[in-house]
């Protein structure tokens, strides 16, 4: 099920990239500010989906990755718990 989920996220990233390119091209032709705003939104959505795809295991299994917690006894008050990914 996870490989299919990865495939769907990949197609969503490709869709966002295509829509951002198309909308930015329309902005360059017409100069419509709304097309530029749509392009920026799709770039942001593609970036968020890319981050999600890269860190999918962390989202699916939150306790298995690296997490940062406050520790009162250490000098800097921050320590890493869990294994490094």
How many domains comprise the coordinates? 1
- Categorize the overall geometry: elongated
β content, as a range?
A: 5-15%
Largest sheet: 2 strands, antiparallel
Give the rounded overall mean pLDDT.
82
Rg: 19 Å
Which H/E pattern describes the elements? HHHEE
Residues in helix, %: 55-70%
What structural class do the secondary elements suggest? mainly alpha
Distance between the termini: 22 Å
Low-confidence stretches: none
How many helices does DSSP assign?
3
Placed side by side, the strands forming the largest sheet appear as 1-2
Total number of strands: 2
Write the layout of secondary structure elements.
Elements: H1 2-30, H2 33-54, H3 56-60, E1 67-70, E2 78-81
Antiparallel strand pairs: 1-2
Helix pairs in contact: 1-2
Brief digest:
It contains three helices and two strands. With 85 residues, it is mainly alpha-helical. The protein has one domain (2-81).
What does this structure look like?
The chain has one domain. The chain has helices at 2-30, 33-54, 56-60; strands spanning 67-70, 78-81. A hairpin with a 7-residue loop joins strand 1 (67-70) and strand 2. The model has no long low-confidence stretch (mean pLDDT 82). Helix 1 (2-30) packs antiparallel against helix 2. The chain starts with a helix and ends with a strand. It is mainly α. A two-stranded antiparallel sheet has the order 1-2. It has three helices and two strands.
